[in-house]
């Protein structure tokens, strides 16, 4: 993103390569780069994950807090995203420079997790109407190597998978006020069901074709990219349990948005969405 | 009780009821758009230097800001400080307008597009994009094409075009098969989609179907906008002719006076 100077010849090389389904690092248009994922890296957070996708490095930490649910949704918890681009990533992020990018990533994530079919907020409820868990998902961009949206969504899903929600041991109802006692045992917690948590797939339009997982050089050759958020099939995530009592959810789009100063022909949009699925 | 505006046989109706330019006299260009009950005012100002900017950029920037009036929303009063929703709308508006404007005509400058939503009854982004497109044209900012926008809410098996706020709220929180809202903005002549946002959980066939509906719907709005722009241009031409006629008259009077004084001076 920053300090990336590509000559026009290099750009032409990348564009022509993409037309032949062959990218500069040998991948095809639909291949991802190798990624390393590590969970439970931050000891003070309820859940954390670190994802390294070639040059992109994302660290996600999740904190849980007790909060009152919204009045029109008494049995649902809350989830809030905050994206922080640290100046380590690129000097452009210094101060408030990274705010635009950060707000667009957090908006997309918020939209993707909005639907109850994507992430069920009912599992965060403690006492209906009075207490619920609020998850603060803090995403830190450590290094920029292209393809933030995918990396952020992958790291978030891993961190949510890793999140430990303390179990409520005792409950005192004192005339409207609720007094909670959380279990002291560090091994006494429950995990969240993230089977259908959405993953974002970025399709970057270069020339006539769309590529998945663009590197930073490929991103600078493209004018527009399409981000599709796909909710998974929860059946494929629980291997041994009685899978018969879990409904078969088809893959669905939980959010679609475009990014970049360009535009798409409607046919290209349709093909790209199909490719993303 | 929810009253569906258009049932499963989708009715294509242009819900853009009012569109006017030259609303704000202080701005270079402005527009007022009503989409059902949603009322939006947009003003566009002259290009100015980008503040806090060191490097030179080949393309001009668009600075978009969307603001809700405190009395605009049905459920609660909007605070003065811009909240997450306003910032998200501003980003989305910028995303939609960037491909339409010829940014190479004002390198290293920025054009301010300021939107003020007076009443929020659903489809805010669609109304804002329509208003911004009109205002930019009114401000004589060079553009590639007319930009129009529309949104559809899907609840169960029914599609509602340009949903009012109640339907949007239901669509966002529904647990039926395919709940969701899609907003799309289109550059009509070039047949390009400049922005496509979807929220909710929908499968691919539903998304493709809604896209078809939205394309047709956006095309319906175009003649209305063209009419407004033509009226605007004709009005400006007539104003120019009128001004020129006035100028000629004044010049005649001045010339006569000058001749008088010259003859007086010479006669002295």
TrEMBL record, chain A:
Keyword terms, alphabetized: Cytoplasm, Exosome
Alphabetized GO MF terms: mRNA 3'-UTR AU-rich region binding
Chief site of localization: cytoplasm
GO biological process: exonucleolytic trimming to generate mature 3'-end of 5.8S rRNA from tricistronic rRNA transcript (SSU-rRNA, 5.8S rRNA, LSU-rRNA); nuclear mRNA surveillance; nuclear polyadenylation-dependent rRNA catabolic process; rRNA catabolic process; TRAMP-dependent tRNA surveillance pathway; U1 snRNA 3'-end processing; U4 snRNA 3'-end processing; U5 snRNA 3'-end processing
Domain Exoribonuclease phosphorolytic positions: 32-166, 198-251
Annotated compartments: Cytoplasm; Nucleus, Nucleolus
Pfam families: RNase_PH (PF01138), RNase_PH_C (PF03725)
Stored InterPro entries: ExoRNase_PH_dom1, ExoRNase_PH_dom2, ExoRNase_PH_dom2_sf, Exosome_comp_Rrp42_subfam, PNPase/RNase_PH_dom_sf, Ribosomal_Su5_D2-typ_SF
GO cellular component: cytoplasmic exosome (RNase complex); nuclear exosome (RNase complex); nucleolus
CDD domains on file: RNase_PH_RRP42 (cd11367)
Superkingdom, taxonomy of origin: Eukaryota
Protein family per UniProt: Belongs to the RNase PH family.
Protein name: Ribosomal RNA-processing protein 42
Taxonomic source organism: Bombyx mori
UniProtKB/TrEMBL annotation, chain B:
A Gene Ontology biological process term: rRNA catabolic process
Main subcellular localisation: cytoplasm
Limits of the Exoribonuclease phosphorolytic domain: 20-142
Superkingdom per UniProt: Eukaryota
Record bears the keyword Cell membrane: no
Transmembrane segments: none
Pfam family, one: RNase_PH
Family annotation (SUPFAM superfamilies): Ribonuclease PH domain 2-like, Ribosomal protein S5 domain 2-like
Subcellular localization, as worded in the UniProt entry: Cytoplasm; Nucleus
Keyword RNA-binding annotated: yes
Keywords, in A-Z order: Cytoplasm, Exosome, Nucleus, RNA-binding, rRNA processing
CC per GO annotation: cytoplasmic exosome (RNase complex); nuclear exosome (RNase complex); nucleolus
Listed InterPro entries: ExoRNase_PH_dom1 (IPR001247), ExoRNase_PH_dom2_sf (IPR036345), PNPase/RNase_PH_dom_sf (IPR027408), Ribosomal_Su5_D2-typ_SF (IPR020568), RNase_PH (IPR050080)
GO molecular function: RNA binding
PANTHER family linked to this entry: EXOSOME COMPLEX COMPONENT, EXOSOME COMPLEX COMPONENT MTR3
Family: Belongs to the RNase PH family.
Protein name: mRNA transport regulator 3
Biological source species: Bombyx mori
Gene that encodes it: 100101185
């Amino acid at each position: 993103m920053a300090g990336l100077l590509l000559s026009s010849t290099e750009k032409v090389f990348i564009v022509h390569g993409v037309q032949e389904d062959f990218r500069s690092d040998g991948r095809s248009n639909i291949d991802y780069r190798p990624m390393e994922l590590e969970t439970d890296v931050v000891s003070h957070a309820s859940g954390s994950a670190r994802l390294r996708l070639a040059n992109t490095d994302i660290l996600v930490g999740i904190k849980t807090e007790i909060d009152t649910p919204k009045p029109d949704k008494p049995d649902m918890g809350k989830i809030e995203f905050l994206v922080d681009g640290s100046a380590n990533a690129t000097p452009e992020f210094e101060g408030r420079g990274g705010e635009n990018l950060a707000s667009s990533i957090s908006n997309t994530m918020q939209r993707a997790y909005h639907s109850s079919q994507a992430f069920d907020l009912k599992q965060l409820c403690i006492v209906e109407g009075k207490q619920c868990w609020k998850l603060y998902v803090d995403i830190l961009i450590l290094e920029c190597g292209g393809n933030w949206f995918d990396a952020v969504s992958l790291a978030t899903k891993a961190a949510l998978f890793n999140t430990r929600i303390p179990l409520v041991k005792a409950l005192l109802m004192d005339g409207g006020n609720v007094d909670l006692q959380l279990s002291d045992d560090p091994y006494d917690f429950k995990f969240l069901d993230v089977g259908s948590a959405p993953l974002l797939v970025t399709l970057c339009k270069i020339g006539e074709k769309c590529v998945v997982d663009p590197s930073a050089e490929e991103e600078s050759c493209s004018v527009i990219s399409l981000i599709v958020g796909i909710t998974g099939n929860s059946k494929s995530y629980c291997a041994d349990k009685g899978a018969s009592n879990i409904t078969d959810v088809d893959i669905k789009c939980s959010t679609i948005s475009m990014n970049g100063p360009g535009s798409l022909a409607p046919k290209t949009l349709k093909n790209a969405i199909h490719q993303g699925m | 009780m929810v009253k569906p505006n258009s049932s499963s046989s989708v009715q294509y109706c242009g819900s853009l009821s009012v569109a006017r330019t030259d609303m704000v006299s202080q701005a270079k260009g402005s527009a007022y758009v009503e989409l059902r009950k949603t009322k939006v005012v947009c003003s566009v100002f002259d290009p100015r230097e980008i503040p806090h900017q060191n490097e030179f950029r080949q393309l001009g920037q668009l600075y978009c800001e969307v603001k809700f009036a405190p009395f605009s929303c049905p459920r609660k009063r909007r605070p003065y400080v811009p909240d997450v929703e306003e910032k998200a709308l501003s980003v989305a508006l910028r995303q939609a307008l960037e491909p339409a404007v010829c940014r190479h005509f004002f390198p290293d400058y920025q054009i301010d597009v300021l939107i003020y939503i007076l009443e929020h009854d659903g489809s805010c982004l669609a109304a804002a994009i329509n208003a911004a497109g009109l205002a930019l044209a009114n401000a004589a900012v060079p553009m590639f094409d007319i930009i129009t926008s529309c949104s559809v809410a899907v609840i169960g098996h029914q599609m509602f075009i340009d949903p009012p706020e109640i339907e949007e709220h239901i669509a966002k929180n529904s647990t039926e098969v395919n709940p969701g809202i899609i907003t799309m903005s289109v550059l009509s002549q070039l047949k390009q989609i400049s922005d496509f946002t979807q929220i909710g959980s929908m499968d691919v066939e539903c998304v493709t179907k809604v896209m078809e509906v939205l394309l047709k719907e956006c095309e319906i709005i175009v003649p209305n906008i063209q009419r407004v722009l033509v009226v605007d241009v004709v009005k400006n031409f007539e104003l120019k002719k009128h001004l020129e006629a006035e100028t000629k008259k004044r010049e005649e009077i001045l010339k006569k006076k000058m001749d008088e004084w010259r003859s007086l001076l010479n006669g002295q």
